[in-house]
TrEMBL record:
<dbReference type="Pfam" id="PF01381">
    <property type="entry name" value="HTH_3"/>
</dbReference>
<dbReference type="InterPro" id="IPR010359">
    <property type="entry name" value="IrrE_HExxH"/>
</dbReference>
<protein>
    <recommendedName>
        <fullName>HTH cro/C1-type domain-containing protein</fullName>
    </recommendedName>
</protein>
<feature type="domain" description="HTH cro/C1-type">
    <location>
        <begin position="13"/>
        <end position="67"/>
    </location>
</feature>
<dbReference type="InterPro" id="IPR010982">
    <property type="entry name" value="Lambda_DNA-bd_dom_sf"/>
</dbReference>
<dbReference type="Pfam" id="PF06114">
    <property type="entry name" value="Peptidase_M78"/>
</dbReference>
<comment type="similarity">
    <text>Belongs to the short-chain fatty acyl-CoA assimilation regulator (ScfR) family.</text>
</comment>
<feature type="region of interest" description="Disordered">
    <location>
        <begin position="382"/>
        <end position="404"/>
    </location>
</feature>
<dbReference type="GO" id="GO:0003677">
    <property type="term" value="F:DNA binding"/>
</dbReference>
<dbReference type="InterPro" id="IPR001387">
    <property type="entry name" value="Cro/C1-type_HTH"/>
</dbReference>
<dbReference type="InterPro" id="IPR052345">
    <property type="entry name" value="Rad_response_metalloprotease"/>
</dbReference>
């Protein structure tokens, strides 16, 4: 009886298929391995032979060693998706898996690099989250600004401001234009994580996405999955309101939004770095315009063709994360790692690490990864870190960046 690759983790294969949006049937067709065999591998009823595992790993663009590493216990908190209701389940599965992989990389990097302490207002209990009022949401947004010393003016870099509070963010394209973002807390390090989609190139849209996911982290992290499913539309509305209040404080923006023209809103967009659509909705939520005036603004908005793309969308620069790329570069520059050894330690392919850590394409893959044979001690239960030459152990502190 052929035993196959000892230590193979079926859950890794399930996870990898989700990340690549592949069914068992599609993977079978692409790899030449039968669908029943793939099913048995995932269930743990059978282990693949190395040649078969190589074929599957190649199709999934992952190292064979990735399938020998157990999936870590990250917790079972609810995931909150900012996405169109018609988004396919595959799109959500990709985003969820990518966020989990981001957390895995982060946990590994935290062995040497100290992320900023999580510094946010107290999270709401499940009861409070289900009963919160709009006025309380406005106050929570202002509490966040006060805690982070942002004042009441425009936030220059929303993404870096949130990262400075200890929230880990990745931004990458998924290929699903209807997906905007997903967030969740992970119990493994008691830290919130965000995935922001780069499929839409509008910088102001991404800024709003970050503020929206921040709302879920602050208000909804104690809710159960059934709460999210039952109250999805209301939770999304609350997150929209928080994002608007966080980016556009009422006391600072109210005067400018009292019956504005579209040209006035365009000027405000340049100053506050939020979309004209968001400004119209903010004016309506603050009762600074009535229904009839809002309708007129939306009709003129459509007449100018702005629903397909607003002015300045191609001019305002997109924000990018800084914590993950800085952590990787610190390990390379100060932690004693070479690029091949770091790729080996993190486990994923160089391309996946580059994307999740917001690194330039080819940053890691410009150097070939070190190939470790399956009979190496690293695959017989020896921790990977012990295989590293002069294994670094010193934690490199990462100072918070002031982003306001």
């Amino acid at each position: 009886m052929r035993i196959g690759v000892k230590g193979f983790q079926g859950a890794r294969l399930t996870q990898a298929r989700a990340a690549r949006a592949m069914t068992q049937t599609a993977l079978a067709k692409a790899s030449g391995i039968s669908s029943p065999s793939i099913s048995k591998w995932e269930k743990g009823d059978q282990m693949p032979e190395f040649a078969a595992l190589e074929k599957v790993a190649a199709v999934l663009s992952l190292p064979t060693t990735w399938f020998l590493t157990p999936v870590p216990e990250l917790g079972n908190r609810t995931f909150f998706f900012r996405s169109n209701a018609s988004l396919a389940a595959a799109g959500r599965a990709i985003a969820k898996t990518r966020l989990e992989w981001l957390a895995e990389i982060s946990l590994c990097i935290q062995e040497w690099v100290g992320w900023p302490e999580v510094k946010i207002p107290a999270r709401l209990s499940r009861k409070d989250a289900l009963t919160i009022t709009d006025a309380e949401i406005e106050n929570l947004a202002m509490d966040c600004r006060k805690l982070w010393k942002l004042g009441n003016g425009p936030i220059q870099h929303v993404m870096n401001t949130v990262e400075a509070a200890g929230i880990i963010i990745t931004r990458e394209a998924l290929g699903y234009i209807k997906m905007d973002g997903v967030s969740s807390w992970f119990d493994a390090d008691q830290r919130p994580y965000m995935f922001i989609s780069a499929d839409k190139t509008s910088a102001v849209r991404n800024r709003f996405d970050v503020a929206h996911e921040l709302a879920h982290i602050l208000m909804h992290s104690e809710l159960k999955q059934e709460d999210e499913e039952l109250h999805h539309n209301e939770l999304e509305r609350q997150a929209h309101l928080f994002a608007s209040a966080f980016l556009l404080p009422a006391e600072s923006i109210a005067h400018s939004l009292s019956y504005p023209t579209l040209d006035t809103l365009l000027t405000l967009k340049q100053k506050w770095k939020v979309s004209i659509g968001a400004l119209i909705m903010r004016a309506k939520s603050l009762d600074l315009i009535d229904d009839a005036y809002a309708t007129r603004l939306w009709k003129n908005y459509s007449a100018r063709g702005w629903r397909k793309g607003e002015p300045l969308d191609d001019i305002l620069p997109s924000e990018t994360p800084y914590l993950m790329p800085m952590g990787v570069k610190m390990l390379l520059d100060q932690g004693g790692f070479s690029k091949p050894i770091l790729i080996e330690k993190l486990g994923l392919s160089a391309a996946d690490i580059e994307q999740l850590c917001s690194l330039p394409e080819g940053f890691l893959s410009s150097e070939p990864a070190k190939v470790i044979p399956l009979n190496s001690p690293v695959f017989r239960g020896t921790p990977k870190s012990s295989m590293l030459p002069d294994s670094p152990s010193k934690v490199v502190p990462l100072n918070q960046r002031k982003s306001n």
